[in-house]
From TrEMBL, chains A, B, C, D:
Pfam family name, one: LDcluster4
Lineage: superkingdom: Bacteria
Species assigned in the record: Speluncibacter jeojiensis
Cellular-component GO terms for this entry: cytosol
The protein, known as: TIGR00725 family protein
SUPFAM superfamilies, per the entry: MCP/YpsA-like (SSF102405)
InterPro entries noted in UniProt: CHP00725, LDcluster4, LOG_family_nucleotidases
Length: 160, 160, 160, 160
């Protein structure tokens, strides 16, 4: 029996800055990844550095499975904590694939790239939990105060 | 000689709500489309109703050329003011194509869908002019008070 | 009244080699574009050189409308006979957009790139007319002996 | 240490009919998946049934990792032997993602869908090994007589 194929596994996206992430955001992202993995949830990211890398590191360290949807067409651009990577070659358009592949999104910190994904998620009905980040122009995003709270909120939204 | 092929023509995107656009937004969008067309600028939209339709109507009424990048795969979903339509079948992912096809973006009003495109534009270096809409969490978007001001600002950003 | 917006206009794709097209293929493509334009049909291509350019030149010369779906993200790569261009940034993936945007496909000559589009068209139910080209491993492609015959066959397939 | 994240892992695509695959093709695909997994190569497929499912079953049974790039936007459409799935929502356009994600492609049997991917692979420089299938109009595809020979040929093409 192969334990890494779990029928009906859930996928949660973790988004945030690839460059310029703060130390606090990195710590939070790592913890979010770890907590998701412990719940058996796969972690979806854009596959690069910063928050994406930290979330994958946390997940893999806890025995989890990670999916990296890279913007470029070279798999070598992905961080080293990806179970599986997809070199989409879609550029920023791959953000929409991150959203499509996720049943809920946890946004760690904020940036214009993150905002694009948050807006797309809200627009397409994918629940968004914001951990840190900007004051957002609406109330459709759940705000969490800690990685624990963010993961709890995300897991509550999953259809099981 | 065919006047509708202009080497080096410029393309400006007009984005905004497809449903739920206010009367004022419709009037503004129509005027924006008209003014862009008068300057020989092609109008790019998501090809559907509301602000998209109004901008195209204004452009076509002034002899302009419009491009509609539809989310679905049925061309019949497009509004009747499209010179050329592309049934992308990409869903919301086509928002990224709207941004890629535009040298500048004018956002009329605001919604989560619009915010997604604004954020993507800022992220990829496409100038954004906001006409109405939400207070945005940053200063990277130019705010215009009228269609005239918005079109002036957009045209100033074009490389000629 | 603006003549370039025609509700219910039909779109036919013309595909073929961008580089290495023979002189005969260029002549045929130009004639195909011209004949399509005369019938009021818009011409869809990948927007680059060779057969794509020749088809657009023929269409525009006859007062037609052309759509170029470019693989790269730089509009300047398009040929000078495009009414509207879309710098998709999708690479070869844009071939699928060419097929989606076309109600029928005329393939002038053949190459691996062309074969990919032909196969995708057949797979998704878009009629394909082959003018010249390889012996194909199936009977699902109509073979035409001349541009006139190819355009006649394409037009017959259009839902009017 | 987590064994499922292997830096520099190789990915080989296995393509073929989702419906209408013959019993022989299913047996071959399962064996191809198994052999790839034994060599530590990840298996990329379109994630659905038929040849795709058989290749994944073979890989997972041998402890391998599989990636399914689904055409629709519902993860539940994927077969039960996917380590990770991506509900791309791209329709047939996802074939290009399968090719991009693969360093080599093994085609089991043939169909128009398969031909589209083969042609795209040849076009973009991804080696193709054909196991069974149509006589193809060119010599750029390696023809293998058995799953063993196909996997050997695919592995030889991988940059290590």
């Amino acid at each position: 029996m192969n334990v890494i194929v779990e029928a009906g596994a859930n996928y949660v996206g973790v988004i945030g800055a690839g460059e310029g992430a703060t130390g606090e955001q990195m710590v939070q992202a790592r913890r979010v990844g770890e907590l998701l993995a412990r719940k058996g949830v796969r972690v979806v990211t854009g596959g690069l550095g910063g928050v994406m890398r930290a979330a994958c590191e946390g997940a893999v360290g806890a025995g989890g499975v990670t999916l990296g949807l890279l913007p470029g067409s070279d798999r070598a651009d992905g961080n080293q904590f990806l179970t599986v990577s997809v070199p989409t070659g879609l550029g920023e358009m791959r953000n929409a694939l991150v959203v499509r592949s996720s049943e809920a999104i946890i946004a760690v910190g904020g940036s214009w790239g993150t905002l694009s994904e948050i807006a797309l998620a809200v627009r397409t009905g994918v629940p968004v939990i914001a951990l840190g980040g900007w004051p957002l122009p609406g109330v459709e995003v759940l705000v969490a105060q800690s990685p624990e709270e963010a993961v709890e909120a995300a897991v509550r939204t999953l259809a099981r």
